[in-house]
Amino acid sequence: MKEIVLGTTGRKMPAIVVGCMRLTGKNCAQMQEFIHTAMEQGACYYDHADIYGGGQCETIFGEAMAKDTSIKREDLFLQSKCGIRQGFFDLSQEYIISSVDGILKRLQTEYLDVLLLHRSDALVEPEEVAAAFEELYAKGKVRYFGVSNHKPMQIELLKKYVKQPLIINQLQFSIPVSNMVANGLEVNMTSEGASDRDGSVLDYSRIHDMTIQAWSPFQMPNWKGCFIDSEEYPELNRELQNLAEKYKVSTTTIATAWILRHPAGMQVITGTASEKRLTEIIAAEKISLSREEWYRLYLSAGHFLP
């Protein structure tokens, strides 16, 4: 399995992270089977959030671990997120701590390997975030910390107060949804892709050794659905199919390999409940696209080079 160095930890982790958002419909036995399928292929990193299924994803996952003695906690790397509430965001000290306590209870574990702040909070008081992180770290409830959907200056504000390194930023990224690449390639242009919507977060992450975790890696812009086999992206799908035939894999595998080819050393969050699709995503770790192939996929999604 392809590995990346996780942030500033020096720890090597799988490039594929098993996203658990869509696992709510599984019962305990099905969840156990899903975990085993992932583990057998080297996928030991699992991404949760307290809002996924209203907490049910974590509950079922925790039951699956507790009832299957062959699934050992020390073999899993568990990550969860907090900060999104019904109708508002909340990164207060009180909520972060209570959220983590709930996550640990549902997952039936004594600690999280990583806690991420799910979204930025307009009313965030970074001193409170720092106090929450310090308490969680001191009590052994969380080992590492990071953010999700944060811009560089929002991260810098947190870093002014938080003692622990922020090792991860979870960001939406796919072949069509790739403004953090486009704004660098179209720099100093008046084209749409030149718009810097994220504060050059890609370069910032590489400079500061923050691991980018790509969520919704098969999503079209504006939440129109999956671009694979979509009539809205005929050229991209022709290119995906050509490369899939060349490498004897699925188009899903090629779309994943496109993200893994970037030298930033990103992780890809799977976000599927299908064991077959999970296997296709993991297979991307064995594919290394050429520079020309990477750019052909990029251009076929409607981007351009100046």
SSE layout and pairing:
Elements: E1 3-5, E2 12-14, E3 16-19, H1 28-40, E4 45-47, H2 56-67, E5 77-82, E6 84-85, E7 88-89, H3 93-107, E8 112-117, H4 126-138, E9 142-148, H5 152-159, E10 166-172, H6 179-185, H7 201-207, E11 211-215, H8 234-247, H9 251-260, E12 267-269, H10 275-282, H11 291-300
Parallel strand pairs: 3-4, 3-12, 4-5, 5-8, 8-9, 9-10, 10-11, 11-12
Antiparallel strand pairs: 1-2, 6-7
Helix pairs in contact: 1-2, 2-3, 3-4, 8-9, 8-11, 9-10
Descriptive account of the structure:
The chain is 38% helix and 17% strand. The protein has 306 residues and is α/β, with parallel strands linked by helices. The chain has a single domain, classed as TIM Barrel, CATH 3.20.20.100. The strands form three sheets. The chain has an eight-stranded parallel barrel, surrounded by five helices. A two-stranded antiparallel sheet has the order 1-2. It has a two-stranded antiparallel sheet with strand order 6-7. Helix 2 links the parallel strand 4 (45-47) and strand 5 (77-82). Helix 3 (93-107) runs parallel beside helix 4 (126-138), helix 8 (234-247) packs across helix 9 and helix 9 packs across helix 10 (275-282). The radius of gyration is 19 Å and the shape is globular. The protein starts with a strand and ends in a 6-residue tail after the last helix.
